[in-house]
Design a protein that fits this description.
The complex is a heterodimer of chains A (289) and B (285). Chain A is mainly alpha-helical and 289 residues long. Chain A has one domain. Helices cover 70% and strands 0% of the residues of chain A. Chain A is built from twelve helices and no strands. Chain A is elongated, with a radius of gyration of 22 Å. Chain B folds into three domains: 166 residues, P-loop containing nucleotide triphosphate hydrolases (Rossmann fold, 3-Layer(aba) Sandwich), CATH 3.40.50; 60 residues, no CATH class; 41 residues. Chain B has ten helices and twelve strands. In chain B, helix 6 links the parallel strand 6 and strand 7. The radius of gyration of chain B is 23 Å and the shape is elongated. The chains are: A mainly alpha (289), B alpha/beta (285). Chains A and B meet through helix 1, helix 2, helix 3 and helix 6 of A and helix 2, helix 3, helix 4 and helix 6 of B.
């Protein structure tokens, strides 16, 4: 700290007037892109966590594909393909809902949100940064799962443009939907320690009843009915329509891909998620009064 | 209307948590360029008061103006003019970022930031600029907190118990940093429960206890004239006698005349700042 005395002479005087301050404040996009850069650096530098987080769904894909290999699905498709479609849906939910739910709860509990709130950073910049993180992670996870699916069980990339269009809107609506719900649930845990349990519980239940870990046809009807109130079941169903042959539609409990329903349910949950975010988001932890 | 020379004006500030009065009728005026210390024991209402001034908490009563605006309604342009060092926020920084990345990132939020490397030098972290933040010691984290608070060139700095947990040397270094900031024209509001810190840094001190201001003034005048009366005590036939007086010399002369020479066990003492402080906060309980 000996440098301190020498440097003190160069300290600029605190600015007096405030005429130009408003104009020079960085806007939400500039600050938001800076936040996204910081989010990605923070996330990807924790190499161990990155390795495990991204490889878990791929390992599950290999594992579930092997376990259920005996009960070939028929209709020109393999069980691996069935699970790949479901796990891509589960991956979208994990990388958005889980990362945001646990990540924001932890940042709130540790006071990082409070600290950011004390700067002139636009509130939107924080969410732009999180959006950047979620997009990069979700795209990476999805590409990884498709690659592993192609490698182990002949998951075929769709060739029809209509299927890619379905994939695009399901991917985007699904990511937005689970991101908003993730931000909303981050207000529920009272501490960073309980965040993982609070966030993973509903997500894991949804993954089991929505056709991620267990083929939808094996899930009892009443649980399927419960699942159909939530977005994940619809995402997985639409992804099956993207990656499975057309004749696989006979395996759907509804006997149809129900794209219209899917879009409506996802849009409805986006509205619900947005309302929950706007009404429940807090910059301070509940322990902070 | 706020005078241009006033940085903070608080009048009749009240805040309740449930049935508990955390702050009950606090008045504070801080002039521009002043170092003002809010001194009090834990739970006195220091942090609540400061967090209302920072715009984090809503008040239940009274008026507050900080740099001419009501913190409850002030926007981003106002936040660009203040710097905040929260109480024990170090935990926030258990991150993989480097010191330099973090300071540069925060600089980007402000319209007229200081040079990040210069700020890192000011807080004495140049050698650690490229270290990951989670590798810093507690004292180094606290200096990073200060770097993030000053990087936006604030007109007014809030420092909430900045040196709690510091060793004596780190505290001295920190004081030098605050003196430098003040020397460059920054108004500083500091909370502390260390008397020597308030005495060393502050132009004026307000002693807060039980949610009320017990005394305000320069550290040397705290408690007023009455609290500073000398105490003359001596040994009498029946035991120890003692009296408080503004004129100890006259009292001693009278005693000398009465005893016809040496006064048995004579002592003349004046209260230390610590005595005055303890009396001030004791009066709350």
């Amino acid at each position: 700290m000996s440098a301190m005395a020498e440097r003190s002479a160069t300290l600029p005087r605190a600015p007096g007037g405030d005429g130009a301050v408003e104009a020079a404040l960085p806007g939400p996009w500039r600050a938001g892109l800076a936040r996204a850069g910081i989010e990605l650096k923070t996330f990807f530098r924790d190499k161990q966590s990155v390795a495990f987080v991204f490889s878990l769904p791929a390992v599950l894909l290999v594992l579930l594909g092997s376990i259920f290999r005996g009960m070939a699905a028929g209709h020109g498709m393999t069980v691996g393909t069935l699970f790949a479609a479901g796990l891509i849906g589960g991956g979208i939910a994990s990388t958005s809902f889980q990362y945001l739910g646990i990540g924001i709860a932890t940042e709130r509990d540790r006071g990082m949100l409070k600290r950011l709130r004390g700067t002139p950073m636009p509130a939107a910049a924080y969410f732009i940064g999180k959006t950047g993180l979620v997009l990069v992670c979700t795209v990476t996870e999805t590409v990884l799962l498709i690659a592993v699916g192609m490698l182990i069980d002949n998951l075929h990339l769709p060739t029809a443009p209509g299927r890619w269009w379905t994939f695009t809107w399901v991917f985007l609506l699904g990511t937005v939907c689970f991101s908003l719900l993730g931000i909303a649930i981050s207000s529920l845990p009272k501490s960073a320690r309980s965040a993982t349990a609070v966030v993973m519980m509903p997500l894991t239940v949804l993954q089991f009843i929505s056709g991620v870990y267990v083929p939808a046809t094996l899930v009892p009807t009443w649980l399927r009915d419960v699942a159909s109130f939530f977005p994940l079941k619809w995402i997985c169903q639409a992804l099956r329509s993207v990656f499975l042959p057309q004749q696989a539609v006979v395996l759907e409990p509804a006997g149809s891909w129900e794209h219209g329903h899917t879009a409506l349910v996802l849009l409805a949950w986006i509205v619900i998620g947005l309302v929950l975010c706007l009404t429940t988001f807090r910059w301070r932890s509940s322990r902070d009064g | 209307m706020l005078n241009a020379d006033t940085a903070v004006r608080v009048s009749g500030l009240r805040k309740q948590y449930g049935d508990v009065d955390a702050v009950s009728g606090v008045d504070i005026d801080i002039r521009r360029g002043e170092v003002f210390a809010l001194l009090g024991p834990n739970g006195a209402g220091k942090t609540t008061t400061v967090e209302i001034l920072e715009g984090y908490r809503r008040r239940d009563g009274g008026t507050v103006e900080v740099l001419g605006e009501d913190p409850q309604r002030a926007g981003r342009a106002w936040r660009a003019r203040i710097g905040i060092v929260l109480q024990l926020a170090s935990e926030a920084e258990a991150t993989e970022l480097t010191v330099r990345e973090m300071v540069r990132h925060f600089a980007g939020f402000y319209p007229r930031p200081k040079d990040p490397d210069e700020v890192i030098g000011l807080v004495g972290l140049t050698a650690k600029a490229r270290s990951r933040i989670h590798q810093l010691s507690g004292g180094q984290l606290r200096r990073l907190d200060v770097a993030l608070g000053i990087v936006g060139s604030p007109e007014l700095m809030f420092l909430d118990e900045p040196t709690t947990g510091f060793d004596p040397e780190a505290r001295r270094q920190f004081w030098t940093l605050i003196e430098d900031l003040s020397g460059s024209g920054t108004t500083i509001l500091l909370t502390t429960h260390y008397l020597d810190e308030a005495e060393a840094l502050a132009d004026r001190v307000a002693v807060i206890s039980g949610g009320r201001i017990r005394a305000t003034g320069p550290p040397a005048d705290l408690g007023g004239r009455a609290a500073r009366a000398a105490s003359v005590s001596w040994q009498d036939g029946d035991g120890r006698r003692s009296m408080r007086t503004d004129e100890p010399t006259r009292v001693v002369a009278e005693l000398g005349a009465r005893y016809g020479g040496e006064v048995p066990g004579l002592t003349v003492t004046r209260p230390t700042l610590e005595d005055i402080y303890l009396e001030l906060i004791g009066s709350a309980q």
